[in-house]
Amino acid sequence: MTPEELSSAISACLRAAVDAGDLTIDLPSEVRVERPKNREHGDWATNIALQLGKKAGMNPREFAQLLSDRLAGIEGVRSVDIAGPGFLNITLDAGAAGELARTIVEAGQAYGTNDALAGRKINLEFVSANPTGPIHIGGTRWAAVGDALARILQSQGAEVTREYYFNDHGAQIDRFARSLHASATGDPAPEDGYSGQYIVDIAQRVLAADPDALALGGPASVERFREIGVDLMFSDIKASLHDFGVDFDVYFHEHSLFENDFVEDLLDKLKASGNLFLEDGAWWLRSTDYGDDRDRVVIKSNGAPAYIAGDIGYFVNKRNRGFDLNIIMLGADHHGYVARLKAAAAALGDDPDAVEVLIGQLVNLVKDGAPVRMSKRAGTVVTLEDLVDAVGVDAARYTLARFSADSNIDIDLDLLTRHTNENPVFYVQYAHARTHAVARNAVSAGVDARSFDAAALAHPTEGALLAALGQFPGVVAQSATFREPHRVARHLEVIAGTYHRWYDACRVSPLGDAPVEDVHRSRLWLNNATQQVLANGLGLLGVSAPERM
Fold this sequence. Notes:
The protein has about 550 residues and is of the alpha/beta class.
């Protein structure tokens, strides 16, 4: 019996009680069950009696007793105990608990998926680093977290489009072009420009692509460096992300928003509606009317559009493309964007909940206990390539995804290069590799999966492992709901630890010349179920599941 099946069974008992006239209450859409912290309290617990007791006009313990009597009659439930003010602790019989192993193996890659988000069309915008330099460590974090979140949302039935906002419009691109031009001419970098070996490299590649670029002279020469240099830089960014296992469905060019007066027409509509007002020569969005802490300049006093003008156009563009939810991942310095984007949506007469902003915090690399500044290309920042060169793609992706995105993290490079259980990604991948080794040894010992006796999985470590495996679908669903891929990573570590303890206590292959029994065959099913869940979870994080280590 899976947690979902138990939840459905409790819901069925509640409906039966209502139908029988024992309860008069509006029932919740689902009943949450969770693993008790103390294993002696049972396999699963629910606080549904505490939630509904008073609403039903009953003492929660009285409500729990009514529900307990019905639950006790369900096949597979061995006992139901009422604890404290009305908690229900449920213990399954060994057969019902063990049946989960067969459920997982038969479900295969589908275990942990559902259709809760079916029909949702989600645009997930992440990384979106300006094409003025290689992706730094903050963008690398979003690459890992964003791609994992896309996979998790897709596992719940959503149609997800991964989108990269290509910022090829504005002052930063102008500074980039002037920096390239200065490098090619041997002049110092502009005071507000970019430096680093990558600028030298790109400038030389521009000259290789167009040997006459300098001969154009003046603004025409700078424009040529901009045109070719941006394409080269963005090609490098795409290649770096691809090597990191991250590819995008859409690369959206910012400059396209300003073609055919698209943004200008939108702003004219906002003016006509009164949501833009003129003050000190600039046009302001009345964003305070929609929950922002201050009004925002949309058109500067010199007539140039402010950055938010493009944001407004981009939001409308996404909605016109049919996305009902637009998730945007931004860096730690973009907190103000949350309120202003929602205010812009509301000012346009749209649903502010159609836009959702996730803010990521800083990442620091540490080696030998000291901060790392090791970039060869950028000079002052750590890049995606720097991190991958130091620890590899799997360790980088897993580590960046295993922390809540809204927390600062320190990544210990020494730790991530160790092949020990202290290294989280090694710990989980080694558990997966061990399941394959156990399966190979089982075949050699004549253990097969032709039969399965769920009741044979009665050892305490088997109950703990089954419970951890049973929680996996719920963890994935919560990760999708809260946009938190780290929940999957942390639960994989729980499964890995529980599996290692089971491995130490229970044998799949018989010792010596001892005969193969049903318990060995059933344990092989449990081993293979663990293998499947670990592979599914690592896949959601975009991390490989090696068969040997």
